[in-house]
Amino acid sequence: MIVAIDGPAGSGKSTVARLVAGRLKFQYIETGSMYRAVAWKADQVGIDPKNLDQVATVARDIQIEFKPAGDGSQRVFVEGKELTRDLKNETIGRMAAVVAANPEVRDILVSKQREMGARGDVVMDGRDIGTVVFPDAHKKFYLDADPVERARRRYDEMKEADPGLVFDQVVEQVRQRDHEDKTRATSPLKPAEDAVLIDTTALNIEEVVSKLVQAIEATP
Ligand code: C5P
């Protein structure tokens, strides 16, 4: 069974997807980390993220491996080196949104995602899982929330590691990434027609997780 969870940055989808996967004993796959890994590698070797051919070569050659962490989250290894934490910062997130607009990169990573999904019961989160990667997923969700609330969640997550963080800048970054993800020509972020839409602005994590688990368990 494949459960697809899509939505914009800060919608809560990764946390929710991880917890739902844990409840159902499914494997959790966070596809954003694959775009982040390609952006990280391109940066390491001095490639401009906008250089379509060179970034596509990075995506073709990169070795990305996922291993489950104790809390059900996903540890990410690139060429054998653990990068779970390094990939999470907003600079890499912004670069990931640039490489994610590259159609060849998307083709390569979507194939890898389909292979991973074919291995069994999975919860996969991203931007195009229900629309492109698994259009026939058994259950699709699209999580969204007010942009200022999404920025507040990001700010709370990051401020310990970065005490100089300015809230208004985080709001701006969230709006910028929404714009990039929703307006790109290839696989723009949008809900699949048959996705269950959930606005998480006023909901806590447990409320969202329960809604999803109930909807999945009610699916024949
Ligand atoms: O979800 P996360 O913030 O880690 O994703 C980073 C970026 O990767 C997103 O802003 C988006 O541009 C891209 N992405 C994508 N398709 C996915 C997952 C992520 O385009 N399935």
Overview features:
220 residues; alpha/beta; binds cytidine-5'-monophosphate
Count the DSSP helices: 9
**Residue share in helix:** 40-55%
Uncertain regions: pLDDT < 50 for 5+ in a row?
A: none
The helix/strand class is alpha/beta
Order of helices and strands: EHEHHEEEHHEHEHHEH
Count of DSSP strands: 8
Intertermini distance: 11 Å
Radius of gyration, in Å, reads 16 Å
Please list the strands of the largest sheet in the order they lie side by side. 2-6-1-7-8
Bound molecules: cytidine-5'-monophosphate
Question: Largest beta sheet, briefly?
Answer: 5 strands, parallel
How would the global form be characterised?
globular
Give average pLDDT, whole number. 94
Strand residue percentage? 15-25%
What does this molecule look like?
The structure is a single chain. This protein is α/β, with parallel strands linked by helices. 49% of the residues lie in helices and 16% in strands. The chain is built from nine helices and eight strands. The chain has helices at residues 13-24, 32-44, 52-61, 90-99, 103-117, 129-133, 147-158, 167-183, 205-217, and strands at 2-6, 27-30, 64-68, 74-78, 81-82, 122-126, 139-144, 196-199. The strands form two sheets. Strands 2-6-1-7-8 form a five-stranded parallel sheet, with helices on both faces. Strand 3 and strand 4 form a beta hairpin. Helix 2 (32-44) crosses helix 3 (52-61), helix 3 packs parallel to helix 5 and helix 7 packs across helix 8 (167-183). The longest helix is centred in the C-terminal third of the chain and has 17 residues, at 167-183. The protein binds cytidine-5'-monophosphate (C5P). Residues 9, 31-32, 35-36, 93, 96-97, 100, 126-128, 177, 181 line the site of cytidine-5'-monophosphate. Residues 3-217 form the Cytidylate kinase domain. One of its GO terms (molecular function) is kinase activity. This is Cytidylate kinase. It catalyses: CMP + ATP = CDP + ADP; dCMP + ATP = dCDP + ADP. It comes from Nitrospina watsonii.
